[in-house]
């Protein structure tokens, strides 16, 4: 099993309410993550995602089931989920905390914790980490652009 952790922050010229409402819509988040093919919102807290990706020579589709386990408008939220596919599994937690350093400006503090098992997990951090870092960096940059 390989464990990954990423975190960071950025600021945008949008109100905290606007940013919070954007971030709790799974369709908005799915639109910024590379490889996402579909999002099925089951109810306000539960959703499913289908994504294509590749890690090293392993390429395929991952099916993810996720749930908001915490929502504190307009301050923070947390999602936990599980994905499977490509002879691998992934358990993860994603969260954010919003600050308003000045009127109409929001600081987004975010984190991602994941455990990857199976074939991809057995590749270890040397193979997995650069791929995961690229996905996270691209997604955060797209998020920043969408919120600007």
From TrEMBL:
Protein name, per record: Carbon monoxide dehydrogenase
């Amino acid at each position: 099993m390989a464990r990954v952790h990423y975190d960071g922050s950025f600021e945008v010229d949008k109100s905290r309410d606007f940013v919070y409402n954007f971030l709790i819509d799974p369709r908005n988040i799915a639109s910024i993550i590379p490889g996402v093919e579909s999002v099925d919102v089951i109810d306000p807290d539960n959703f499913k995602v289908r994504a294509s990706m590749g890690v090293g020579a392993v390429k395929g589709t991952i099916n993810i089931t996720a749930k908001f386990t915490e929502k504190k408008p307009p301050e923070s939220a947390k999602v936990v989920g599980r994905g499977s596919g490509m002879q691998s599994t992934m358990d993860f937690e994603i969260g954010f905390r919003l600050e308003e350093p000045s009127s109409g400006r929001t600081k987004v503090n975010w984190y991602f914790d994941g455990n990857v098992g199976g074939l991809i997990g057995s590749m270890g951090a040397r193979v997995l980490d650069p791929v995961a870092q690229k996905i996270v960096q691209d997604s955060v940059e797209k998020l920043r652009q969408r919120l600007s």
